[in-house]
Predict the 3D structure of the following.
Amino acid sequence: EAQVTQNPRYLITVTGKKLTVTCSQNMNHEYMSWYRQDPGLGLRQIYYSMNVEVTDKGDVPEGYKVSRKEKRNFPLILESPSPNQTSLYFCASSLSNTAPQHFGDGTRLSIL
Amino acid sequence: KNEVEQSPQNLTAQEGEFITINCSYSVGISALHWLQQHPGGGIVSLFMLSSGKKKHGRLIATINIQEKHSSLHITASHPRDSAVYICAVKRGLSPDSNYQLIWGAGTKLIIKP
């Protein structure tokens, strides 16, 4: 089954403790993105990647890192999480720059 | 002013009604997406348009490039259509430009039985 898989689905952690949210897709998609969704603000893009080893900043990249060492994986790294990064995070992938995006189920992060 | 505006923000209707959700944008675009977010949080891509009209089941999406406007219609609405509907545009007139989308704030639709 074609899917985008995010882990974990839920995480409660404390300020400053490094964490990684994994994202994996099995559709051989070149394009992948990370978004955060906050009440009243809609979806905002954090980082995106157009191919292996090619990543670029979205609208709200501060406090986040990403890597794209393999086509299928696009992890989101919070080196020193802070409470303002408490949010619902989505990973998405698409076959091309203009193709529809496929979304993961979301990861709800709470930073205390 | 936001570059992508959706209206209405909230919409409650009775089962069976014809639903229209609007999306207006102020930038040049190469594509417009309509997505659906279920109460559980999952997001599904419904349509991607660059011109004209697309239909899938009871859903119809139209776009008018000159007027910078798109509509999503739902015919014979059903309670299972209750969700947030989100419009997003790909900025830039070239499809090969960057991968960034500009997102609308969403329209929360409730269909009552």
Observations:
- DSSP finds no helices and eleven strands in chain B.
- Chain B touches chain A through 26 residues (CB under 8 Å).
- Residues 80 and 111 of chain B are 8 Å apart (CA to CA).
